[in-house]
Amino acid sequence: MLTAASAPERILQRLDWQVIRKLDGLLQGDYRSLFYGYGVDFANLREYQPEDDIRYMDWNVTARMDTPYVRQYMEDREITAWFLLDLSPSVDFGTAQNLKRTMLIDFVTTLARLLTRHGNRVGAIFYDSHVERIIPARGGRNQVLLLIHDLLKQPSLSHAPFTNLNLLFQAALNSIKRRSLVFVISDYISEPGWEHSLNLLNKRHEVLAVRLWDPREMQLPDAGPIIMEDAETGEQLYVDTSDKKFRKRFQEAAEKREAELNRSFQHAGVEALALSTEDDLVNAIVRFAQSRQARRK
Predict the structure, then answer these.
(1) What residues have CB less than 8 Å from 205, skipping those under 6 apart?
(2) Residue 282 clears pLDDT 50, i.e. is over it
(3) Are 149 and 57 in the same domain?
């Protein structure tokens, strides 16, 4: 049994006060811009409009009418949400106060609290070097505390086989039966080729990609000679960060990876939120809500 003074309780209380209260004011209690689902009850047919989701195209009617038509559904009153969590070694990158793992825990706690507070259910799949565990979707405050507790208890791996997000996505495809809202929270430092599995997941569910990153992954500070270590493999490399040419090559490589990652999200057909370790969580969530709202107009 978790006590009132437990670490999960303290984290939830802090985020209730510092983040959720502010979001209530800024979003005025309307979280539909973040959480909206499609129910199973067919409601109507209408002509296709730009920006409509092609997953709801009625191909039979489209063929008969020679005009694209989409199905409309009654919106679910209850949302089932899942957090697919990449807890591989690279999420422990950052400063002591601002690790990617810390941002992951705060983001999951905030979203889980908002969802369960409105009567919805949340579950999670943990991945480190393999699928570690699956927490079935349930509602209520205790479910949020359980998620926080298990995230805090999850050990940080110093090294592991290189991350393969396909394993996480395949686990979700096999485990999540009912259409759900799925948050994939990762830094996407992974073996290539995960876009296809993510696209399959997105065809069954509403998938939102949350990409964790740290500014030091984009630009190296001038800190003189240092030893850099690959968080995934443990491989070490001695470099001189005072070398301007080296810092420039590092930045160019980071920008190339950023562009490739954005193309991967586009190929998978998912919306993406970039979440920095130095972001204000309130501002990041509001920014994402506004972006989602603009896409649906």
Answers:
(1) 82, 176, 179, 180, 181, 182
(2) yes
(3) no
